[in-house]
Design a protein that fits this description.
By secondary structure, the chain is α+β, with helices and mostly antiparallel strands. The chain has 12 helices and 4 strands, in the order βαααββαβαααααααα. It folds into 2 domains: about 110 residues, Alpha-Beta Complex (Conserved hypothetical protein from pyrococcus furiosus pfu- 392566-001, ParB domain), CATH 3.90.1530; about 130 residues, no CATH class. The longest helix is centred in the last third of the chain and has 17 residues. It is globular, with a radius of gyration of 18 Å.
Length: about 250
């Protein structure tokens, strides 16, 4: 997997969307599209106010070996349907951080339970560490705990979250964000798993949190469509302060 900054024009965006021809897949995607979000992104792009940090587009090219010469017109979309639809609608090129998955990455993706959560969590982890490339097979082999973190996040699907107001896609309800943060906070020490869950649980589920947790939650819940990277780095720093006060 490699991460690059790429400018994607409307023709490329439309072709990327069109490359997925399976009717069931297209129906599934269309049923989950939020037109209001597409309109918001499209307006930002047309007005020159688009920030390339807003999310990340994930593409893959079948039968592609690990290299950096991906052809956008031949790529399929793994994630970023709202952003690509917005570019096509706006008629204006836009700059994105783009993660390219190759054939080996895709093969590894199919080997894991809750694979989409794992892939997104690993990608966010790589971005937080400033990495622009990552061998997903080696990463999962060396960091198998990420799958446990993904399982933790998925188990929270039916939990009673606090009210995040009118947000449609709140940061703290994104499974890959919880998975990445849980894994990051453990830092390879399984004994920290319970403490990480306590901290994240306070942010996500505690109806009567401390003023400290409430302040962190309010920031994490602001500016709904801001890049998750910015807020996750903030949460990492707040976690370090929180855990330091619990070391005797």
């Amino acid at each position: 997997m490699i991460i690059q900054e790429r400018v994607i024009n409307p023709e490329e965006a439309q072709q990327i969307l069109d490359n997925k021809t399976d009717p069931e897949y297209r129906e599934h995607v269309e049923s989950r599209m939020q037109q209001s979000l597409v309109d918001e992104y499209s307006t930002l792009i047309k007005n020159g106010e688009w920030d390339k940090r807003i999310g990340i587009v994930i593409l893959y090219q079948q039968d592609k070996l690990r290299t950096d010469d991906f052809d956008l017109m031949k790529c399929d979309l793994f994630d970023g349907h709202h952003r690509m639809t917005a570019v096509a609608k706006s008629g204006t090129p836009a700059s994105f951080q783009v993660a390219f998955l190759d054939e080996e990455d895709l093969s590894e993706y199919m080997n894991y339970s809750y694979p989409r959560t794992c892939v997104h969590a690993v990608l966010l982890y790589a971005r937080m560490k400033g990495s622009t490339s990552l061998n997903m097979k080696e990463f999962f082999w060396e960091h198998e705990e990420i799958c446990q973190s993904a399982l933790y996040a998925r188990e929270k699907d039916n939990a009673e979250y606090v009210d995040f107001g009118n947000q449609k896609r709140p940061l703290l309800r994104k499974k890959f964000v919880l998975a990445c943060l849980h894994y990051l906070f453990m830092d390879g020490e399984l004994e920290k798993s319970g403490q990480a869950k306590e901290f994240l649980g306070g942010l996500c589920f505690d109806k009567n949190p401390s003023s400290e947790i409430l302040k962190i939650r309010e920031y994490a819940s602001s500016a709904e469509n801001e890049d998750v990277l910015i807020k996750c780095k903030y949460l990492e720093e707040e976690w370090k302060k929180w855990i330091a006060r619990r070391v005797y």
